[in-house]
Amino acid sequence: MRGLIVIAALLASYPVLLGAALWPAPLVFGAAALVSYAAEYAAPRLTRRPLELLGQVHLGVTMRFAARETAALLLVARAAGPDSAWSGVWAAGPESAWFVALAVSMFGVHGMRALHTTLALRLRQTLSRMPVTTRNLDVSALRIPKLPPGWLGDPRGLRFLYLDALPVLGAVWGAVAACCGAAMALALGAAGALALLPYVRRTRPLTDRVRVLEVVGAQVAAYRPEVILYFSGATAAAYQARMWLPVLERIDRRAIVVLRERGMARHLEPSSLPMVCIPSSADLMSFRALSSAKLCLYVSNVGRNVHMLRIPTLRSAFLNHGDSDKEASFNPFSRVYDEVWVAGPAGRDRYRKAKVGVRDECVHEVGRPQLQGISTEGPGLPYRTVLYAPTWEGWNDDLFHTSLMTMGPRIVRALLEHDPPLRVIYKPHPLTGHRDKAALRAHRRIAAMIEKAELAKSKARHPSRAEGPATYVRHLVVTGPEPHLYACFNQCDLLISDISSVVADFLASEKPYAVTNVAGLPEHAFHERYPSTEAGVLLGEDLAGLAEFLDGEDTLARARVKLRSYLLGPEYPDALTRFNAAVERVLTGS
Predict the structure, then answer these.
(1) d(CA 495, CA 327)
(2) Hey, is 435 helix, strand or coil?
(3) Which of 154-163, 455-464, 499-508 has the lowest mean pLDDT?
(4) CB 556 within 8 A of CB 535
(5) Is the torsion defined by CA of 376, 380, 381, 384 positive or negative?
């Protein structure tokens, strides 16, 4: 609501500016200009959509600033008459000379902003178009300069637009003050543009493609990587590679991460692994510094995988980014890899039953090393915690397993209204809403419900009440990478999820879980099709099993222990040992 009020104030200021300029009424003009600038500054911080709509109808930010400047010029012209309040000041010099000076200075301010934007774009494009970028590699020989401060290097140059406040507000006191303000704005704009010149000059050597590739190649060759983790995809899918970084840090061989999308490294968690981003397929396939590696690991099936798959000296292994009963865990595309690595016998059986062309001898059970550290104990709080972690809507309706739109709000409402009180942790899939905006709307509805419940709880607490912090139920909505999903496992007593790798991973905790039956299959058919649900409670469309799950006796503890071995492999040797052994087998050819 505050955002809409600010937008209304911004739009209403322009008729007032025009009327005050024509009257002329300098003080009214000044007040309207101050309101206009304040609304312009506050609007993007409170609401963005209305501003985007204004831009679409050609009333963008530059046009709005130009309109204020035009009104200021009009005010100066109208206030120059013999009966005006500023007639004495105007008489100090030729009317036309002052007006022309003011107009030229205002055009000059925009010219300096255009020059600044040109230099800022040149700087950003030079750095963003490097043939290869790195992390955790010594490329000091390239002498990559530090970026200028954000306000100076921003190509949009919004802060420089506000320099026109000097002549616009100066117009309230007449042409001389407006011209002085314009001169100051012009000088400051020129100083900003000139300040960028040294940065642009220092980036010139980075345009030498051959040299950049040689310097980075030399550092990678000196590292002599043996294992490559390859990733390409949208930034929202960065979690797919992120989950494997700690594992590769702990294996006995030297690993490197190869990325394809610029800026992807910023979306990966801090890691000691060297990373190179090579956007060009030609540069990647000719990057000989990777020739020491013998194994390439893939975490998702994307089109850009083919560029690395074409390198004949690399043995390929598909890791996937989760081991689940979803169709993605037995995708026919998997047969393009030399090997498919799964967590346990369940993964092998999925490919065997699906008959998608992946030979049984190509499937290797390596465990899920990421799951080390998941506790089999609950958080030990005075109240129970339920984690609701629905999956996303999938790339098409055949992969639709999410309960978010049809059951999600009702599940969360039941949890929030449960007596005795429960703590709710809601962690949606990172790709929620990526294909279907209805999923995004459901997510926002759930988040609003939890926020409302949290607000009501906080208001209900009173210093005079005996209730202390230890018994206060604080709900949590997790939409970012932190806290990690596995940290949420350790903070909860129960899980409600959909068909996804979350279910299989949660079995490492051996805690009770429930799975939604979105398709409405009969119970026997559901368990047969999705083996990971066999030791969990089934939730249908009517949520009939929810009350029993929350309040009934846990009779599936032994079934969960048995299913854990089937899905994740044996407990001994541990998963990291088995994963490390798989790497050694490939590298040694044994």
Answers:
(1) 22
(2) coil
(3) 455-464
(4) yes
(5) positive
What is the chain's mean pLDDT, rounded?
Answer: 89
Task: Collect all residues with Cβ–Cβ distance below 8 Å to 461 and sequence separation of at least 6.
Answer: 467, 472
Residue-wise pLDDT for 58-111, tens only, equals 888 889 999 999 999 999 888 765 544 444 444 445 556 777 888 888 888 888
Strands (E), 265-413: 275-277, 295-298, 315-318, 339-342, 363-365, 385-389
Please state, in angstroms and rounded to a whole number, the distance separating the CA atoms of residues 260 and 22: 58
Measured in whole angstroms, the distance separating CA 392 from the mean position of its chain's CA atoms is 15
Measure Cα distances from 168 to 34, 44, 66, 407 in Å: 10, 22, 10, 56
Does residue 572 contact residue 565 with C-beta atoms inside 8 Å?
no
pLDDT of 295-354, one tens digit each? 999 999 999 999 999 999 999 999 998 888 887 788 888 999 999 999 999 999 999 999
Cα dihedral 579, 573, 376, 245 in deg (nearest 10): -20
The identity of residue 533, as a single letter, is T
Q: What angle do CA 225, 226, 232 make, to 5 degrees?
A: 75
C-alpha span between 24 and 26 (Å, rounded): 6
| Residue 22 dihedral angles phi and psi, to the nearest 5° | -75, -25
Q: How confident is the model at residue 492 (pLDDT cuts 50, 70, 90)?
A: very high
**CB-count burial class (<10 Å; 0-12, 13-18, 19+) for 502:** buried
Q: What distance in Å separates the CA atoms of residue 347 and residue 341, rounded to the nearest whole number?
A: 8
CA atoms within 13 A on the CB side of 385: 24
- % of the chain at pLDDT higher than 70: 94
In the prediction, which pLDDT does 97 show? 75
Are 308 and 314 a contacting pair, CB within 8 Å?
yes
pLDDT (0 to 100) of residue 401:
86
CA gap 139, 136 in Å, rounded? 9
CA distance 274 to 134: 7
The answer to whether the CB of 242 falls within 8 A of the CB of 266 is no
Q: Is the pLDDT of residue 466 over 50?
A: no
Helix (H) or strand (E) holding 300: none
State how far the Cα of 2 lies from the Cα of 418, in Å rounded to an integer: 34
300: number of Cβ within 10 Å:
18
Q: Which tokens in the block code for residue 234?
A: 């949208």
Q: Are 233 and 239 in contact (CB under 8 A)?
A: no
Beta bridge partners of 275: 135, 257
Q: What is the 3-state secondary structure (H, E, C) of 143-181?
A: CCCCCCCHHHHCCCCHHHHHHHHHHHHHHHHCHHHHHHH
The torsion of the CA quartet 102, 104, 108, 109, rounded to 10 degrees, works out to 30
The closest of 513, 519, 518, 483 to 501, measured between CA atoms, is: 513
Q: How far apart are CA 564 and CA 513, in angstroms?
A: 13
For residue 181, give both structure tokens: 């303000």
